[in-house]
Amino acid sequence: MRIENHPIIDSYQKGKKVKFTYDGKEMEGYEGEPIAAALRAEGVMTHRYTKKLHQPRGIFCAIGRCTDCVMVVDGKPNTRTCVTMLKEGMVVETQYGVEARRTEA
Amino acid sequence: MRRYHLVVIGAGPAGLSAAIEAAKHGMKVGVFDENARPGGQLFKQIHKFFGSKEHKAKIRGFNIGNELLKEAEQLGVDVHLNSVVMGIYDPLHITVAEDDHITSYAGDNILVATGASENMIPFEGWTLPGVIGAGAAQTLMNLHGVKPGDNILMVGSGNVGLVVSFQLLQAGCHVKAIIDAAPRVGGYGVHAAKVARTGVPFYLSHTIVKAEGNEKVERVTIGQVDSHWQVIPGTEKEFDVDTICLAVGLSPMSQLTRIAGCKMVDRGGLVPETDEYGQTSVDGIFAAGDVAGIEEASSAMIGGRIAALAAAKRSGFVTEDEFETEYQNQHASLMKLRKGMFSHENKGRTDLVKTDEGYPLSMSLLKNGYIAEDEIGEYPGVGRTKKVGVHPVIECTQNIPCNPCQDACKFGCIEVGETITSLPVVKEGSKCVNCGMCVASCSGQAIFLVDEEAEEGFATITLPYEFLPLPEKGDKGTALDRSGKAICDAEVTQVRTSGAFDHTALLTMKVPAEMANRARFFQKREGVR
Q1: ipTM over cut 0.95
Q2: Which among B82, B364, B403, B456 is most buried, taking Cβ atoms within 10 Å?
Q3: Which of B117, B128, B468 sits opposite A65 (nearest CB)?
Q4: Of the residues B217, B246, B275, which one is the last residue of a structural domain?
């Protein structure tokens, strides 16, 4: 899902390649890009499930307004992944309600 | 507490332009933006801008952003990033959340240039991952180099929907269709035409019925609406898509002006009431750009400069006379943009049938996204008399504010005149040297160089081409007409690139002579897209 060559954009402003984990799985992205961009590039669509109805949610606005893309990042829930920049070794987890694990109702 | 002569909230086109103008007049300026990078939405705009030279026409949005940033830096403007302005408090103070602490700043003047956020429409399945804002698609692909999806449905045919659709094609995505509940294409005809000729179908008077899929978007159903916006049973169509982009309008992010106690008015969203200088009802608080009323980046940049001049006058950095002269210049520049078919006064009108010059508007362009073959002969850029040799064919048929084609031709073939919303005229008897500058400079990609009699039985057509992989000389393929329909075989005879063309390649293809006025796009045999 990465754009390798673009007719207009010569290069993207990107940091070095870094590793992070998504629900325990090792993934790669670029330092300084939003976590959400790195996840989309790896094909991850669901960022969280809603608390009551357990419905999936993903990127919607990508500019930090709608909060649909929040996840648990380094243990911190409700982190807006579209405006939080990726760092080496980040632990990114699907958010269930406001937690990293699904608790049975 | 830090104090600035001018505090600017928002580092987009309006905010940065204001900061530059104020700093030029000796004001100490601090710009605050919640994002990690400045520029607002400018760095996501990879198309060439409209307007004229003074509005930075034919320069791509992100390059304008870079110019503004450099200028602001050279003038010593303080740009505070990752800084969320939480409120404006009496008299002229702001509180800012930076990292994990809160700081207070004072401004002799405050300019709110916070822009707008995207609207959305609810439908069955609208919360599924894969339903995104058109701006989100731009952010992912143009800033971060990530495709938002592979197969896309665009909802909304305004300029945002049209421009983003073209950018999705450039990023290598498939746009399955553009739909709009309105009966007419909302954005510039030229933006629609450049998408339509690649084969993207338009469905006007259509809305989304539902999005479906397991955990994410896999399918979408659209349907035609009647005059009461209700779906007509039996008109439903299904598309396999993984992404639905919503480009259904913008709303001003005017919360800060409300907090500050500015008088608000409803103008397609709540905006602070301002005078012609951007001054709100609270003395010293100004508003410019989309937050003061949704428009576009070119006019936002001028609005920012005008508000900065007014702030400079208020604080004694310019005299009354200096202000008046500079304001009149900026105002004149703004008025050039605010003319024509898409101006405020004509917004939302569906009764327009003629251009300002009296040419009939293409109804097919408004309904299907492309000009019908029986409509194209009418326009002054197309020309009615028989031409010999290569000549420009300008398929610019609506009064939009734009004139780079006139400046591009050094041989005087093209005339727009003083009013930049006028249709370009290809002058009779003028000499075209086939340089291609007009083709590359047209922000709407509406100019073609046509030679009806390039060789026995064949015509050549030179068209703007902004996709990868770039075809090469000798490539064989198919010519598409304005609607994107394959009409004949075509062979690439020349591909020109140049720094002066700024990433717009000029592709020349050879087609049977009778296709000269129909063939408008080239598709390589294996399929370009």
Answers
A1: yes
A2: B403
A3: B117
A4: B246
